[in-house]
Structure formats: structure tokens, C-alpha cells
Amino acid sequence: MSANAPYDLLIVGGGINGVGIARDAAGRGLSVLLVEQGDFAGQTSSKATKLIHGGLRYLEYYEFRLVAEALAEREVLLKIAPHIIWPLEFVLPHEKHLRPAWMIRMGLFLYDHIGGRTTLPKSRSVSLLPHGYGAGLKPEFARGFTYSDGWVDDARLVVLNARSAVAHGATVLPRTRLTAAARIDGLWRARVQDQSGERGVSARILVNAAGPWVKHLLDNELAIASPGKVRLVKGSHIVVPRIHARRHAFILQNPDGRVIFLIPYEREFTLIGTTDVAVDQIEAAISVDEIAYLCSAASRYTARPVTPAEVIWSYSGVRPLYDDGSANPSAVTRDYQLLVDAGADQKAPPLLSVFGGKITTYRKLAEHAMQKLEPWTKAKRPWTGDEALPGGNFEDRDFSALLDEYELAFPRLPGLWLRRLLRRHGTLARDVIAGAQDEAGLGERFGGGLYECELNYLVANEWAQSAEDVLWRRTKCGLHMTPAERERVALWFEAKR
After folding, report:
1. What pLDDT digit, counting tens, does each position of 324-373 carry?
2. Rounded to two decimals, what is the model's pTM?
3. Which of 41, 137, 209, 307 could form a disulfide with 45 if both were Cys (CB 3.0 to 4.6 A apart)?
4. Do 240 and 301 have their domain in common?
């Protein structure tokens, strides 16, 4: 397209919903510009519980459509991103005074079948033996249930969708803020600002996928009244030394009616979350009370108490839930609403605003967004469920076979590093290795499994501009590093500027 030609879509927001819509629209032949005021997945989309799941607990709130759609999507995402999404088994210890066994069995049966055909194992009743499913638990928990869902590297899911959008022709600009937009002469005329200054762009359609800022954008930069309301709910997580060495996760019931997850994380740790706290600010950090709540909830079940002193890392994300009027933050719907504004006469350039949503259903949300915009786009048919995300084209191999292939091809590279590299980059790992045959060829070793060759790759291909971008989003190497090692990465970026 020419330099001054209007884009078909201008998308505001580089979280999972924004990049998902950008990928879908670009692949249908539309011209797309996406702007993100910070880094991709810089807020909510990198601060989730990192699950691809239907949401077992949502069945209690009668969210049957949401659960069914999410479970069906779980199968699609396992197929198109097998390097960053993989099956995870969950153990639910039974406490009959909280929920009777028949209720749990009924819920799990529905969970097994409501989403259609699945490649994951069905739920079952199990004994919680200390060296099996009961590893890490108090001995009084003797029986329980297992079911399967999916684990996801959430920040990488966002970046890979952005890369796919670019491969299909989209322009995506991190650290670029929309400062104003208005309908003028049949188009959206907008101003965007990056480090080099402000400039004007135009588009036929504006998509507000700003996440927690969705209402703020409507009220301020766009000055448009909308019937949609946002409920900001903070979810916080803590990371502690691993509670057990097995591969399964726990889903734990609590007397307050909520559940929390204990999830194996980065081999050496356990991720515990989440809380549900109503907030009125978008920027949020974990509170002392939340840390105490998560430690106490976990310690009701664990053989070794979890204490605040053990917390190695924590993070908090503010979820922009669609306000359905529920008084209890845990009961607010996780479903999404897509609202289209085309002016009073329905002839103005359309604005689509995204309220709510969850990471599991981002791809379907994007398809539904394109359905909403059909009268203005004449776009091609849906396609994103059939093409693997970058690095996910395993063909007929599974992850173990891919790892065997790399270990055979690169016998002198560190084995654990190869495994982690493949989990981050899949079949693109060769581009990161860049011809290296031994550890010396990988460049400077920063610690925590991070080498200079990967830093160079992330800067060149994944918009990384700071140590935080790399250590806590595109990789989780920061968890495995000392403060001095993390500082060395920061100095490396400063030297590149």
C-alpha cells in the first residue's frame, strides 16, 4: 500500500486479543496497523495463570458456552503451537465437606465432553499416594480426581501471533501510543506517538483492544460514550521453590469457595495463583494480604507449609472483565463482549471495542471480531486454526522427536539448554543457534540458560528492547539468574543503544 493510503484496520493494543485480531485480519487480505503503548504482552497477557483450559470452576457459574468454546479451542491451540502449549495433568484432592464426590464427578464428566472430541485423557478417580499423585500433600488427603488441560507460555503466545501477523503483511509497532483519533471524511484519522515523535495515520476501521485501558481509550483519546463497562479485577501469583518433583499440577478447593492452582514452573519452582481482587487502578502489584492468602491456601494441603519468606517472584495482572453486575469478583463473567459503534446512523467508520475475554479463547474472539466487521471488510474466510504459529510446524513429530533430532544434530551443545530453546522457539531454534556447534559458538553466557545468540535473535526478530522484555517475557531466564547476572543483561542492552 502507498505511504498515505488508509489501513483497513487500525488496532490499539498489543495484548493477546489485539495481536490475535491483527493476525486473523492480515491473513484474510486486509491491511493492518497495530500500535501498542508498551511491549507486547507487557501487562495482563503475560500475567495470567498460564493455562489453556475451559475453566472447570466456571461450570458452577453456568458459563456453559464459554467452557465449551474454550475446551474446543484447547484442541486447536495444542495443534498450532505445540512448542509453547502442552498437556498438563491436574489433581483435585477431595474434601467432601467442600464439594461432595458426586458433584465433582458430574462436573468432570461434563468437562470431559462439553467441548467435543479431545486428545487429552479423560478424568478419573485416583489414590493420592505419597510418591505419586499425593506427592507434596499432607497424608490425610487420600483420594482425589485427575483431569487434563493445557499449559501455555503466555507471553510467547502473544509475540508469536504478532510475528505471524507480520508474516501475513501486518505492521505492528510496540512502544507506540495512540494519542487521539476522530472520524473525519469517512475515515478514522489518528495520531500515534513513538520515541521519534508523533505522526498521523488513517484507517477505515478502528479496533479498541486496549485491555484494561479499553474504557480509558473510549473516554479520553476517542471521546466516545459506550454502553460497555469494565470490571477491573487483579489476579496475583507467587513463585516458590518446587513443592514436589512430579509433573502434575494441583487444583485446590478453599473454604471461601474459590480454587487456586499449584503448577510446576520452570522445572525448579511452583507457581501458585490466583487471587481475585476488585481494583480501580490499572497498574497494580501484589499485596501483603494476597501473598498471605496464597500461602495459607496452599498450606492447607501441602505437607511442608508455604511461607511468604519463600516467595522468589510474584506478579500481578489486572483483568479487564466485562461488568455483568456480579458482586463477587470471582463470579464476574470471563466471557467477552464485542461492541460495534458505527455512529447514530450506522454509516460512520466503525469502532469495535473488546471487553473481557481469556487467553484460551483469543483466536475465537478474533474470528468473532471479523464476523462483526464483515459489513465493512468483505474479508476472506477464517484460517487461523489451520496454520501453525511460528516454530510450531512439527509436522508428524512430537516434541520428544524434535528434541532427539536436535540432540543428534548438535551433540556438543548443552542438553538442558536445547530443551528450553525448543520450548521457546520450536522449529525456529536453528535460527537462534545460527550455526554454532559448541557452547563457545553461542556467544557470551549470561547465566540462567541465556546466551548472546538468543539475545541477538530476540532483538532482531521479536522486538526485544530491554532486559525485562527478555528475562521475564520472551524467556523466563530471569528466574534462574542472580541479580548480578540480570544486571549484566541490562548493561548489554545499554551498550546496544
Report:
1. 766 666 656 678 899 999 987 888 999 999 998 899 999 999 999 999 99
2. 0.96
3. 41
4. yes
